[in-house]
Design a protein that fits this description.
By secondary structure, the chain is mainly beta. It has three helices and ten strands.
Length: 228
């Protein structure tokens, strides 16, 4: 029984150590799922002399030039705002007071010296609790992405990223999702609130980003299965 308990403790310690030492690779430009997508053939089709209609040319006399094919680009206007607030306030109070008067016999109280039969019971309970949580997020800006896939129902799957190299590190914005061609305005742009299945990331890497991360020994002791 003791050997089995020791084996379980050893396995638990090993799992905690491996969980704390897990290496997470930092994001890099061109990662799968966010890199730019090019059409299968970037060459322009040969001219068709004698024909008015030219295949594979996006020329239209009655519509604006908007993203519609794989490799086309479209600008996403980031207008993300989320606000949440929750509060709770609870107060419970209860008081009990019971008094037994001193009994009398033939008009005289019953006592023994300084002691009497008069009894009083008093009880009071108070409970008060409160909780409040507020969270607000906002992301504004523009990012131009490319069309990665045209689905059979006409939706466009777009993806892209923007990297900014600053003084002490890099910052990036990544966007991926589905858009409807009819939601693209005349400037070939669309607001992020019309992006379906949206995956929007804004983060960074470098010295400033690393300073906000827990060390591996801190992750070890903050592991959810740590028993103490």
């Amino acid at each position: 029984m003791l050997v089995r308990t020791c084996n379980r403790l050893i396995c638990l310690a090993l799992s905690l150590g491996l969980g704390a030492c897990t290496v997470i690779l930092p994001p890099s430009p061109g990662d799968s799922g966010y890199g730019a997508v090019s059409p299968e053939d970037m060459r322009a089709p040969p001219p068709n002399a004698g024909g008015i209609y030219q295949p594979d040319y996006g020329l239209s006399l009655f519509s604006d030039r908007r993203a519609s094919r794989v490799g086309d680009i479209v600008t996403i206007q980031l207008q993300e705002r989320t606000t949440s607030s929750k509060s709770a306030d609870t107060e419970i109070k209860k008081e009990n007071d019971i008094t037994f008067n001193e009994p009398t016999i033939l008009g005289s109280t019953v006592s023994a010296g300084t002691y009497s039969l008069e009894t009083g019971i008093s009880q009071q309970r108070d409970f008060g609790g409160s909780a409040k949580s507020d969270q607000s997020n906002r992301l504004d800006g523009n990012i131009t992405v490319s069309v990665a896939e045209v689905l059979p129902n006409g939706l466009l799957r777009v993806q892209g990223e923007k990297w900014l190299t600053l003084n002490r590190g890099d910052e990036f914005i990544r966007v991926r999702g589905l858009i409807r061609p009819e939601d693209i305005d005349s400037n070939n742009s669309i607001v992020s609130t019309k992006l379906a299945d949206a995956h929007i990331s804004y983060s960074g890497r470098g010295e400033l980003a690393d300073s906000n991360k827990l060390s591996w020994i801190s992750r070890f002791f903050n592991n959810p299965i740590w028993p103490f």
